[in-house]
From TrEMBL:
Residue ranges of domain CSC1/OSCA1-like 7TM region in the record: 240-503
Organism listed in the record: Manihot esculenta (Cassava)
Molecular function, one GO term: calcium-activated cation channel activity
Protein name: CSC1/OSCA1-like 7TM region domain-containing protein
Organism lineage: Eukaryota, Viridiplantae, Streptophyta, Embryophyta, Tracheophyta
Signal peptide: none
Keywords: Calcium, Ion channel, Ion transport, Membrane, Transmembrane, Transmembrane helix, Transport
Bilayer topology annotation: Multi-pass membrane protein
Length: 596
């Protein structure tokens, strides 16, 4: 209904028609802008209402899950680091003495962590060799005589692998003995007789020196990231600095493909960069493919490598569990996506020359108001190419299928591993589409049907994947929700900044003034949610712990649980393993329990 864009060249309507469906086409000072203003307030109130209800619901579900769960080792255990050791005692003796003295009624047992990186490499080698050997033994008709090396003699592979496996088993036994006796780290998993006792030890400082007897919650035994404990304190501290620098460098380097992609969306700029393509770009079909689909395809190819890189960086950052590593990687990927796909795309595509935006914070809303609507067509195409394509590939899982077939052929194994959902890959993607919906709903409403289609497909497909495809490797009881909540709050505040800039440019100063309280109220709402709900996601309340402990105090099965709790956090690399050369030794462990 607006006429603001009548000044554009309508002979090139195919490239500018989407602008007619944006707020840019509403006349300056038009009364229709008050509809956009009202929509900002209504949607903000609605989203905050939904966020509050979801936070409340998930918090209650988290408590309900805790009440309904059976006793779990991580509920009774904490991790203690920075253990001081005297000259005449070991780490194990120091832990025993300290907790027997200061927690006499609740302390149960402890398990000192050992450095087992070399041992894990040996066990992995033995595991791989055992699979090859079992595969050869299961197919007697297969030709098992081969030459070893380029000029080596011809040997029976079954006999050769069998002897090699025996040598590795002997090395494993020797290394396990050495590690058990000498390779202690100054860290231990300490278990208690009650959840409340573990919570007291976790929350209260254990020493007048805050760098000693440092406590944190223990993850589930299967969730522990054991390689972390093989690193010294100094190496871990340096790794954290390296990760920060690496994330910054990766963000800067990724600006290169973003700028290239934005160059592809602009035909005149592309003709300037690549003059030899001028004749091809004059053809309508090729021009639309290059400026519409190709930029998003290139961007997606580059984005594929980001989640694995962020997961690797998080793994060397000092986290003790796979779930913490994945949560950290999820945050990194999310903010990387917001910065490089949203901000870098917006400003490289429209105001790349205005480098001063970072030096003039007061002008950011106005510059966002100019830049963001101009990229509406790009982000609509992004939702189609990235969102619809990715959710379709999630259903068919062609790439994981091919990778699985290649792996099985190369490793000569028929074993299948049930996959788990890569949260650090999929959660940031969904949250980024949420950000696009929140920021563009009043700027370019045409994006909403495409987002709605994506979210409906995602709901159906991921429901199927959760039920029939994926198997969780760990349980965090909703600890990923605060990431979702914080992302939505950031999206709202960003939308408010853009709205203030838009109404200022449209000469509707009253609307701009009336919007100023909105981001402040949103941040106050976020602060209230953090005070009201976030503590439940950090630790369970004493009321819940004591009630659960009382309910289970008279349960006969608790005695058996405490017996298992003593060895629940033993490093898998120190456990007896059962690789064998033939069926007669299949059940013979490399080490007996008496060796520990």
């Amino acid at each position: 209904m607006g006429t603001q864009l009548h000044e554009i060249d309508f002979t090139d309507l195919s490239n500018n028609s989407l602008d007619l469906f944006t707020i840019s086409n509403v006349n300056i000072g038009s009364k229709w802008l008050w509809i956009h203003f009202s929509a900002v307030y209504i949607v903000t109130i609605f989203i905050c209402y939904q966020l509050y209800n979801e936070y409340k619901y998930i918090s209650s579900e988290r408590i309900a899950y805790f009440y309904s769960s059976k006793p779990q080792p991580h509920q009774f255990t904490i991790l203690v680091r920075g253990i001081p050791v005297s000259v005449c005692s070991s780490v194990s003796e120091s832990v025993e003495t300290f907790f027997t003295e200061f927690h006499p009624t609740t302390y149960l047992s402890h398990m000192v962590v050992h450095r087992t990186s070399k041992l894990r490499n040996l066990i992995n080698e033995a595991k791989t060799l055992s699979k090859r050997l079992l595969h050869l033994q299961s197919e007697p008709s297969q030709h098992t005589y081969r030459h070893i090396g380029l000029f080596g003699q011809r040997v029976d592979l079954v006999d050769h692998y069998g002897k090699k496996l025996v040598d590795i088993e002997q090395s494993v036994r020797l290394e396990q003995s050495n590690v058990s006796l000498a390779e202690e780290t100054r860290a231990a998993f300490v278990s208690f007789k009650s959840r409340y006792g573990a919570a007291i030890a976790f929350h209260l400082p254990q020493s007048t020196n805050p760098t000693q007897w440092v406590t944190e919650q223990a993850p589930e035994p299967d969730d522990v990231y054991w390689p972390f404990f093989s690193s010294s304190f100094m190496r871990t501290w340096i790794s954290k600095l390296v990760v920060i620098v690496a994330c910054i460098l990766l963000t800067i380097l990724f600006l290169i493909p973003v700028v290239v992609v934005q160059g592809l969306t602009n035909l005149s700029q592309l003709e300037t960069w690549l003059p030899f393509l001028k004749s091809i770009l004059t053809i309508t079909f090729f021009g639309q493919v290059i400026t519409g689909y190709l930029p998003n395809l290139i961007l997606q190819l580059f984005l594929k490598i980001v989640p694995p890189i962020m997961e690797f960086l998080s793994s060397i950052q000092g986290y003790i569990s796979h779930s913490d590593i994945e949560k950290s990687a999820c945050k990194k990927v999310l903010w990387f996506t917001i910065w490089n796909i949203f901000f870098a795309t917006v400003f490289s595509g429209s105001v790349l020359s205005k480098v001063s935006i970072f030096l003039e914070p007061k002008n950011i809303p106005a510059k966002l108001a100019v830049a963001v609507p101009a990229q509406a067509s790009f982000f609509i195409a992004y939702v189609v190419t990235s969102g619809w394509t990715s959710i379709s590939s999630e259903l068919f899982r062609i790439i994981p299928l091919i990778f699985s077939l290649v792996t099985r052929c190369c490793k000569n194994t028929d074993e299948l591993e049930v996959p788990s959902l890569p949260y650090h890959r999929d959660i940031p993607k969904i949250l980024f589409f949420g950000l696009l919906g929140i920021t563009y709903f009043f700027l370019a409403p045409l994006i909403l049907p495409f987002l709605l289609a994506y979210l409906c497909l995602a709901y159906i497909i991921f429901s199927n994947q959760f039920i029939n495809v994926y198997m969780p490797k760990y349980e965090t009881a909703g600890k990923f929700w605060p990431i979702v909540h914080n992302s939505m709050i950031f999206s709202l505040v960003l939308m408010h900044a853009i709205a203030i800039g838009i109404f200022t440019l449209k000469k509707l100063s009253i609307a701009s003034t009336l919007l100023f309280p909105l981001p402040v109220l949103t941040l106050l709402f976020n602060a209230y949610c953090r005070k009201r709900f976030l503590p439940i996601f950090i630790a369970y309340p004493a009321e819940v712990l004591i009630k659960k402990d009382k309910e289970e105090a008279s349960v006969p099965a608790m005695a058996e649980f405490y017996d298992k709790l003593v060895t629940a956090y033993r490093d898998p690399a120190l456990m007896p393993i059962q690789y064998s050369v033939n069926s007669e030794s299949l059940n013979r462990p490399l080490m007996s329990s008496a060796d520990f």
